[in-house]
Write a structure and sequence with these properties.
InterPro entries: Adenyl_kin_sub (IPR006259), Adenylat/UMP-CMP_kin (IPR000850), Adenylat_kinase_CS (IPR033690), ADK_active_lid_dom_sf (IPR036193), P-loop_NTPase (IPR027417). Catalyzes the reversible transfer of the terminal phosphate group between ATP and AMP. Plays an important role in cellular energy homeostasis and in adenine nucleotide metabolism. Belongs to the adenylate kinase family. It is an enzyme of class 2 (transferase). It catalyses: AMP + ATP = 2 ADP. The protein is α/β, with parallel strands linked by helices. It has helices at about 15-25, 30-40, 45-55, 60-70, 90-105, 115-125, 160-175, 175-185, 195-205; strands spanning about 1-5, 30, 80-85, 110-115, 125-130, 135-140, 185-190. A five-stranded parallel β-sheet has the order 2-3-1-4-7, with helices on both faces. The longest helix is centred in the last third of the chain and has 15 residues, at about 160-175. It is globular and about 45 Å long. Bound molecules: BIS(adenosine)-5'-pentaphosphate (AP5).
Length: about 210
């Protein structure tokens, strides 16, 4: 299964991806996680991305496209992948099309999580992540276990000013790729409002049960 998750910051892409990669046995490729790792490791790519990420801006297309296309070309993606956070501009979507066509494979679905802006700031500013397990928590909606409290991370772009900038970028740069995938007949809309379990049920309804990917 080759699937893309699209949605505003805090829509629940990462939360739902954790479930899907377990049930469908495919790698979760998050461009945000890859960029954060590059920043932590101080690589050239990380240095190019760091300031833009902290401001809530997008990292330039030429930096992100090469990084993700190289990643989905690795052997563990031969049977499928779940892309989270990429593509998020029209040039990224077109570059992905070219790379998939060159590899002789096609996308199965593009899932759009729909969550109103009014819910986003509270979701994002309350997020905490566990660097040991990769689990995503929320101080109010999905409270972390007490034994994890001391090691939880609050992302440097999860403050109100950066979230507002990210939402603006989403509407201006990413929302326009929705009609691109709609025209290809790939778009599946999922209501992202409700408990994470309710959203998972809706997601499984549009993706179908897990099957062996080819
Ligand atoms: P990225 O890491 O991709 O961030 P994002 O798209 O803004 O998405 P988030 O990770 O903030 O949210 P999410 O939808 O995964 O929500 P989550 O499940 O965690 O990108 C970060 C930055 O990297 C960008 O700003 C940009 O600078 C750069 N970048 C990345 N990719 C790029 C690209 N392709 N091109 C250019 N630049 C790029 O949930 C959020 C919170 O809500 C959590 O606390 C969770 O517990 C809670 N929650 C989840 N579901 C629910 C629910 N149903 N009800 C209540 N709470 C919920």
């Amino acid at each position: 299964m080759r699937t893309i998750l699209i949605g505003p910051p805090g829509a629940g892409k990462g939360t739902q991806a954790q479930f899907i990669v377990n049930t469908h046995g495919i790698p979760h490729i998050s461009s945000g996680d890859m960029l954060r790792e590059a920043v932590r490791n101080g690589t050239e790519l990380g240095k190019k991305a760091d300031a833009a990420m902290k401001r809530g801006d997008l990292v330039p297309d030429d930096v992100v496209i090469g990084m993700v296309i190289e990643r989905i070309g690795r052997p563990d993606c031969a049977r499928g992948f779940l892309l989270d956070g990429f593509p998020r501009t029209r040039p990224q979507a077109e570059a992905l099309d070219v790379a998939l066509a060159a590899a002789g494979v096609a996308l199965d679905a593009v899932v759009l999580f729909e969550v109103p802006d009014s819910l986003i700031v509270e979701r994002v500013t309350g997020r905490r992540s566990d660097p040991e397990t990769g689990a995503i928590y929320h101080l109010k909606f999905n409270p972390p276990p007490t034994d994890a409290l001391g090691r939880l991370v609050h992302r440097s772009d999860d403050f109100e000013a950066a979230v507002t900038a990210r939402l603006d970028k989403y509407h201006r740069e990413t929302a326009p790729i929705v009609p691109f995938y709609e025209a290809k007949g790939l778009l599946k809309r999922v209501d992202g409002v409700g408990s994470p379990d309710e959203v998972t049920a809706r997601l499984l309804a549009v993706l179908g049960a897990p099957r062996s990917a080819g």
